[in-house]
């Protein structure tokens, strides 16, 4: 039976794979358990690795380093790829305020960490580990470790201590944000969780207008649109008791009724252009039967699945004039976009199309509309992105006044390339779409492997570090870094920026990269506003944290 002992105990490729798999499986299972309604999820893999290492489990160091780094690269690139399509659109309009507030959380926490480093004897590298744990941001930890080793390649102990500090502060980060949410709700006596008028103003909105402005009588829709700097989609037109799909050449007449898709903030501009808003029907009800508006017209969602359409401008297809249909909405990565002629279509987009059944079916054939095609993985974009991201992260960037060149590293490079590929890949006709389940699978797999390797690498001295004076100080600092920035910016957002509770807590959870706290926040409101706010600020927040962690260690 010596061969069993040899396989399980002697460091080798096989033993490393077995240990990583067992640690990952145990951690994933434990992550399903809840304590007082709170679960740490896959983060339990990290602590399972720590326990295994504490009890003497050893693995091949080179194999462990490769698995840990590759897991981080895969996780952070697919994360960028997933948020890329909505990254830049989330910075517009209502997202600007939320992102600025989230940056306040990020920079306030960073300044606190720097101040505490100056006021205590804790090394900057350990403080970055505490900050990474307090904000539950393992990509930030990976980036900080890479930056530390870039400055001092022989400082393996510093990288290990950084991971220990992160492990100490991580549970406090989860609990701290949840406590901050509870405090904010009590302090401001939250009763109503509905979105504020300003937030609703940025959502897609459908309204009915009566053409009564003499300035547009006899003008085509195209000519009328040139009279305003806002963009509207005229979905249907009522004339002489009949409903029809207008084209850009359709002439507007006095008394026409128009069904217009825009955003609520632009209703006043639409009223000024067309003349008068009608209130006979609420066209924004969730249960409205669009197909019942006219027996000859149908409304259908069509998927873009043809690679030839990837990156093509919507206006260049001339679908309205050629097929007599109208595209009222485009949904991309869960975000509704206005069907602007300048919008570049991407594989995976969902288009809401209105028109006669035969015409809608023909447009479906043109765009693809074959859901099975989306199930096929686009591995080309994955491997190209990984290669380019790692290469970008390895490029030394010289900054005046700094003796050591800055590198984005294996965390900064892949997330930048992932975001850019997700946002602009289709414009160079590179299909970057992956199904949500496929992306989640790759993301979770990479994260689990990274956390398992991190725990095994840093767990040998974890408990002896925690149960001493220095460890208790780490606990106190980690809790302060988790809760103080959240409370301060949450108060500012409510008191001075007039952000409603639902969007406020979603923004705070996103800025702290804390999905566990988001799950709790969702139980305190009726709608999905916290999730929307979380998705709005999460990409920029995680990107800024990854980059700032590296810059701080390289500069200071």
UniProtKB/TrEMBL annotation:
Signal peptide feature range: none
Record keyword Nucleotide-binding present: no
GO biological process annotation, one example: potassium ion transport
Pfam families per UniProt: Asp-Al_Ex (PF06826), TrkA_C (PF02080)
Single GO term (MF): monoatomic cation transmembrane transporter activity
Keyword set, alphabetical order: Cell membrane, Membrane, Transmembrane, Transmembrane helix, Transport
Record-annotated RCK C-terminal domain positions: 193-276, 285-369
PROSITE patterns reported for this sequence: RCK_C
Superkingdom per UniProt: Bacteria
Location relative to the cell: Cell membrane
Bilayer disposition of the protein: Multi-pass membrane protein
Regions that span the bilayer: 12-31, 38-57, 63-88, 100-119, 162-184, 379-402, 408-428, 471-494, 533-555
InterPro entries: AAE_transporter, RCK_C, RCK_C_sf, YidE_YbjL
Keyword Transport: yes
One GO cellular component term noted in the UniProt record for this chain: plasma membrane
Protein family membership: Belongs to the AAE transporter (TC 2.A.81) family.
Protein name: Transporter
Organism annotation: Candidatus Cryptobacteroides merdavium
Lineage: Bacteria, Pseudomonadati, Bacteroidota, Bacteroidia, Bacteroidales
